[in-house]
TrEMBL record:
<feature type="domain" description="SAM-dependent MTase RsmB/NOP-type">
    <location>
        <begin position="172"/>
        <end position="457"/>
    </location>
</feature>
<feature type="binding site">
    <location>
        <position position="299"/>
    </location>
    <ligand>
        <name>S-adenosyl-L-methionine</name>
    </ligand>
</feature>
<keyword id="KW-0808">Transferase</keyword>
<feature type="active site" description="Nucleophile">
    <location>
        <position position="395"/>
    </location>
</feature>
<protein>
    <submittedName>
        <fullName>16S rRNA (Cytosine967-C5)-methyltransferase</fullName>
        <ecNumber>2.1.1.176</ecNumber>
    </submittedName>
</protein>
<dbReference type="GO" id="GO:0008173">
    <property type="term" value="F:RNA methyltransferase activity"/>
</dbReference>
<dbReference type="InterPro" id="IPR035926">
    <property type="entry name" value="NusB-like_sf"/>
</dbReference>
<dbReference type="InterPro" id="IPR001678">
    <property type="entry name" value="MeTrfase_RsmB-F_NOP2_dom"/>
</dbReference>
<dbReference type="InterPro" id="IPR023267">
    <property type="entry name" value="RCMT"/>
</dbReference>
<dbReference type="GO" id="GO:0003723">
    <property type="term" value="F:RNA binding"/>
</dbReference>
<dbReference type="Pfam" id="PF01029">
    <property type="entry name" value="NusB"/>
</dbReference>
<dbReference type="InterPro" id="IPR018314">
    <property type="entry name" value="RsmB/NOL1/NOP2-like_CS"/>
</dbReference>
<feature type="binding site">
    <location>
        <begin position="276"/>
        <end position="282"/>
    </location>
    <ligand>
        <name>S-adenosyl-L-methionine</name>
    </ligand>
</feature>
<dbReference type="InterPro" id="IPR029063">
    <property type="entry name" value="SAM-dependent_MTases_sf"/>
</dbReference>
<comment type="function">
    <text>May act as RNA methyltransferase.</text>
</comment>
<dbReference type="InterPro" id="IPR006027">
    <property type="entry name" value="NusB_RsmB_TIM44"/>
</dbReference>
<dbReference type="GO" id="GO:0006355">
    <property type="term" value="P:regulation of DNA-templated transcription"/>
</dbReference>
């Protein structure tokens, strides 16, 4: 049979493979609640993307998710209907296109053309006209011009302006401003938007920094066991990491574990507890730092407890991993010489690594976590013996999850005191007035880890 409409049968242009992978990862994160790092790593492996393609895909995913709220403010000025009336899959396409136009060195014509092709492939021909029109509007201004057009004036609403200009929800900026006491907020927000470097830890007695340096890393600034992969790459290719003698761990996480292990205790020092251990990075470092004795690692979820076991597989000694609730100890009070309480938190200190978290978390999350944080710290203090120490640790600088929790627990007890933790961070500058320690991305190049050192009296 003769084709009566041959002009309608022209082959359609295929979408760019890298952009398609990036879009599908973004959909997993926004629609299914996935985690960007896990979804992206899996997608890169399955699509066999490496080198420049992998780097481009990573920036498409992380950048789009990181700047999501800011792009939504721009798109609201460029779409004739409310954003909540757009189909979520269409909105994600517009965000992905906006990132290429405003924050990447992609030619505007190429970016719009590629996104129209991707729209046709993923959502059908009917959506292409809207995508083309909206992205052309976005392309008519630079990022700075869009910020000037949309954000409130800096001198009238400083925090509102910074929220748009630096892609953070206002409530997060308000919490950071409280924690910083008005100094360094803009520098922190800029640092939060910088992709973090891959940081490794050489677990003492199992590997050393020289081995990691020989594999292409450079020594970290503060941790004597840390090294940084400046050029990125797959840390799993390093023999020490593959064998569990080293691991991937932010330098801030290393520093708080080292601080706990360095604190002075009187008497025996052979029984340590990691009360909230999963996935086990700090457990592995603590176990390696022990001279003798046993580390007990507690984790309520079975699959995360298995991750702890994997992280401890190379550590010397007979360490225990328990599946259980840290707020309901199965051991006698005063059983341990040192206790790490790295409690569940909002994770606002690791926004560099988790680009989706800033838009996923809410003020209600902080409020809901507070009772658990207090219960875990109270359990930690009860679990340590007189003369022993507890490190209360969070990966958030939010004041309601840090000092407020410590103050609330210690106010109810007369058998514990807060000690100055700053001497346990030798050589690390800008540690504030103490006695607790707050690390910062813009000051220390680490996640915003918090530590309070508490001694059982």
């Amino acid at each position: 049979m003769t084709d009566r409409n041959p002009r309608n049968r022209a082959p359609q242009r295929r979408p760019d493979r890298v952009r398609r992978v990036a879009y599908q990862v973004i959909r997993q994160v926004t629609a299914e609640g996935g985690y960007a790092n896990l979804a992206l790593n899996k997608a890169l492996r399955e699509a066999r993307l490496g080198g420049r393609d992998a780097a481009f895909c990573t920036e498409l995913v992380h950048g789009t998710l990181r700047w999501q709220g800011t792009y939504d403010a721009f798109l609201a000025r460029s779409v004739s209907r409310a954003l909540e009336d757009l189909d979520p899959e269409l909105l994600d396409l517009l965000r992905l296109g906006s990132h290429q136009l405003l924050n990447m060195r992609v030619d505007s014509y190429a970016a719009v053309s590629e996104m129209v092709t991707l729209t046709r492939s993923e959502l059908g021909q009917k959506r292409t006209g809207l995508v083309n029109a909206v992205l052309r509007k976005i392309s008519q201004r630079t990022l700075d011009q869009w910020i000037a057009a949309v954000a409130p004036p800096l001198d009238e609403d400083r925090l509102g302006h910074l929220a748009i200009a630096n892609a953070h929800p206002r409530w997060v900026i308000e919490a950071f401003d409280r924690a910083l006491e008005g100094s360094g907020l803009e520098e922190l927000l800029v640092a939060d938007n910088e992709p973090p470097r891959v940081t490794l830890v050489a677990r003492p007695g199992l590997a050393d920094v020289d081995e990691l340096v020989a594999a292409g890393a450079t020594p970290a600034r503060w941790s004597p066991y840390g090294a940084v992969l400046d050029a990125g790459g797959d840390p799993g290719r390093i023999a020490a990491v593959a064998g569990g003698r080293a691991g991937v761990q932010d330098e801030g996480s290393q520093l708080v574990a080292i601080a706990l292990a360095s604190a002075k205790v009187d008497g025996d020092d052979t029984n340590w507890l990691d009360l909230c251990a999963g996935p086990g990075g700090k457990s592995a470092l603590l176990a390696s730092l022990m001279q003798d004795g046993q580390l007990t690692a507690v984790e309520p979820l079975k699959h995360r407890a298995e991750l702890v076991r994997q992280n401890l597989r190379a550590a010397p000694g007979n360490h225990k991993v328990l599946v259980g609730d840290g707020t309901k100890p199965t051991w006698p009070a005063g059983s341990f010489d040192r206790v790490l309480a790295d409690v569940p938190c909002s994770g606002l200190g690791a926004l560099r690594r988790r680009p989706e978290a800033r838009w996923r978390r809410t003020p209600e999350d902080v409020e809901e976590l507070r009772p658990l944080q207090e219960a875990l710290l109270d359990s930690a203090v009860t679990s340590v013996r007189p003369g022993g120490v507890v490190a209360y640790v969070t990966c958030t600088p939010h004041p309601d999850e840090t000092r407020a929790v410590v103050d609330a627990v210690l106010a109810r007890r007369d058998d514990a005191v807060l000690e100055d933790a700053r001497p346990l961070f030798p050589g690390v500058p800008d540690l504030g007035e103490g006695p607790d320690v707050q690390l910062w991305p813009h000051l220390h190049g680490t996640d915003a880890m918090y530590l309070a050192l508490i001694r059982r009296s």
